[in-house]
Amino acid sequence: EKAVGYAIKAGYRHIDTARIYGNEGEIGNALEKAYIEGIVKREDMYITTKASAPRRKTLRQTFLLLIQLTL
Questions:
Q1: How many CA atoms lie within 13 A of 18 on its CB side?
Q2: Less Cβ around it within 10 Å: N or C end of the chain?
Q3: What is the 3-state secondary structure (H, E, C) of 19-55?
Q4: Which of 6, 12, 21, 46 is an active site residue?
Q5: Is 6 a catalytic residue?
Protein backbone atom coordinates (compact mmCIF):
# COMPACT_ATOMS: atom_id res chain seq x y z
CA GLU A 1 0.00 0.00 0.00
CA LYS A 2 2.77 2.44 0.91
CA ALA A 3 4.73 1.53 -2.22
CA VAL A 4 1.71 2.31 -4.42
CA GLY A 5 1.21 5.61 -2.60
CA TYR A 6 4.85 6.56 -3.16
CA ALA A 7 4.60 5.55 -6.82
CA ILE A 8 1.53 7.75 -7.34
CA LYS A 9 3.27 10.68 -5.65
CA ALA A 10 6.30 10.10 -7.91
CA GLY A 11 4.10 10.34 -11.00
CA TYR A 12 3.12 6.78 -11.84
CA ARG A 13 -0.35 6.70 -13.42
CA HIS A 14 -0.64 3.07 -14.54
CA ILE A 15 -1.53 0.49 -11.91
CA ASP A 16 -1.60 -3.24 -12.70
CA THR A 17 -3.71 -5.45 -10.48
CA ALA A 18 -5.22 -8.91 -10.41
CA ARG A 19 -7.09 -11.03 -7.94
CA ILE A 20 -4.33 -13.65 -8.14
CA TYR A 21 -1.71 -11.01 -7.25
CA GLY A 22 -3.57 -10.37 -4.00
CA ASN A 23 -2.99 -6.62 -4.36
CA GLU A 24 -6.49 -5.26 -5.02
CA GLY A 25 -7.16 -4.23 -1.42
CA GLU A 26 -3.84 -2.44 -1.01
CA ILE A 27 -4.20 -0.67 -4.33
CA GLY A 28 -7.75 0.35 -3.47
CA ASN A 29 -6.54 1.81 -0.17
CA ALA A 30 -3.70 3.71 -1.84
CA LEU A 31 -5.99 5.09 -4.57
CA GLU A 32 -8.62 6.16 -2.05
CA LYS A 33 -6.00 8.03 -0.03
CA ALA A 34 -4.52 9.67 -3.14
CA TYR A 35 -7.97 10.80 -4.32
CA ILE A 36 -8.96 12.18 -0.91
CA GLU A 37 -5.64 14.00 -0.48
CA GLY A 38 -5.95 15.49 -3.98
CA ILE A 39 -2.68 13.95 -5.17
CA VAL A 40 -4.32 12.55 -8.30
CA LYS A 41 -7.76 12.47 -9.93
CA ARG A 42 -9.41 9.20 -10.94
CA GLU A 43 -9.45 10.23 -14.60
CA ASP A 44 -5.65 10.58 -14.51
CA MET A 45 -5.14 6.95 -13.48
CA TYR A 46 -4.98 3.96 -15.85
CA ILE A 47 -5.97 0.71 -14.14
CA THR A 48 -5.28 -2.72 -15.67
CA THR A 49 -6.60 -6.01 -14.27
CA LYS A 50 -6.96 -9.64 -15.33
CA ALA A 51 -10.23 -11.47 -15.93
CA SER A 52 -11.10 -13.94 -13.21
CA ALA A 53 -14.06 -15.88 -11.89
CA PRO A 54 -16.93 -13.75 -10.58
CA ARG A 55 -16.63 -12.76 -6.94
CA ARG A 56 -18.11 -10.46 -4.36
CA LYS A 57 -16.38 -7.10 -4.25
CA THR A 58 -15.21 -5.57 -1.01
CA LEU A 59 -15.51 -1.85 -0.28
CA ARG A 60 -11.83 -1.34 -1.11
CA GLN A 61 -12.17 -3.16 -4.41
CA THR A 62 -14.93 -0.79 -5.51
CA PHE A 63 -12.19 1.81 -6.08
CA LEU A 64 -11.02 -0.43 -8.91
CA LEU A 65 -14.39 -0.67 -10.68
CA LEU A 66 -13.47 1.78 -13.43
CA ILE A 67 -11.01 -0.43 -15.26
CA GLN A 68 -9.46 0.70 -18.55
CA LEU A 69 -8.05 -2.67 -19.61
CA THR A 70 -8.96 -6.23 -18.67
CA LEU A 71 -6.69 -9.01 -19.89
A1: 8
A2: C
A3: HHHCCHHHHHHHHHHHHHCCCCCHHHCEEEECCCCCC
A4: 21
A5: no
**What is the spatial distance between Cα 32 and Cα 60, in angstroms, rounded to a whole number?**
8
| Residue 25 zone, left/alpha/beta (φ > 0; ψ -120 to 50; rest) | alpha
| pTM attached to this predicted model | 0.72
Task: Give the pLDDT score at 67.
Answer: 63
- Per cent of the chain over pLDDT 70 is 72
pLDDT tens sequence across 14-36: 998 887 888 888 888 999 999 99
Residue 11, sorted as left (phi over 0), alpha (psi -120 to 50) or beta, turns out to be: left
